Here is the input.
Amino acid sequence: MKPMFLPGVEHNPQPGPYADMIRMMQQSGSEYPQIWHMFAYLPKATEHLARFTQEILRGPGAFSPGIRELIAAFTSYGNECPF
Here is the structure.
């Protein structure tokens, strides 16, 4: 997985669940959403964004969560951004 363009963010996670998830994924050699670095860097500032993202992708809506994930993955692919 390519490093972020924000090394200060990527290399300075604060204690919390996103830092733990990043560490676990890195140890297993798995890819993970790069936005987790931002969530780990500023947990209090990004907790609203994390809840918003989960609600958009998994809350009630006209499309199933799977279709919403597919739209997000396609959009990320078009932007050359791993999803």
In short: The helical segments are 7-10, 17-28, 35-41, 43-58, 65-78. The mean pLDDT is 89.
